[in-house]
Amino acid sequence: MKADVTLDCFGLLCPMPIIKTQEKMKELKVGQVLEVLSTDEGIKADMPAWCKATGQEFLGIEEKEGEYRVYIKKIST
Amino acid sequence: MEKEKFNIVVFSGDLDKVLAAFILATTAASMNMEVNMFFTFWGLNVLRKKKLTSGKNLLQKMMNFMNKGGADRLPLSKFNMLGIGPAMMKIMMKQAKVPSIEEFIKLAKSLGVKLIACTTTFNFMGFQKDDFIEGIDYFAGAATFLQLAREGRISYFL
Asked: Chain-centre distance of CA B20, in angstroms?
């Protein structure tokens, strides 16, 4: 999946990827896609939950050898 | 749209419990919630400066000599072992890149989390404003918390 901005959260545990995602999303324009890189398995459940709470669109997650790439589209400011 | 409120009473001054409180508080703030942390009893130690002791009379001074303040001097609720447990835990947290309680306080502030300190504990323990770190939003009592809880979606006591 193609992203406009990538946020590297490799090695960070909950809740840091979520907090950093929130900060990063402020820099994106509506319609842009953020890619979050994480090694925390919790991200699989946490990111859809965060999207639901903040009104952003969860596009999907790619998993490869314990590395997660999460894609979120900014749809609300 | 008015933000949903997440309120948490931090009664405990134990490192492990306070860590859980800050994880929830900073996450809730990142989920666009209005977060209020109400520090009372041992929880006030999180917001105290590191001093030898505090208090106005002898009993208060004796109590606060034992009841040490400072976010980096909190004991563990289990395996405290005169401070060996928390020292080990802090190293393990650092290795896992988990922020310290001091870092969590700064993070919470930057995310707009409100830090409220209990006036009753403040008074009977003989504290003074100077015993506390910068960044406390206000001092208040039980009615304030209950009103926040009435307005809030989620309120916890830890």
From this structure: 11
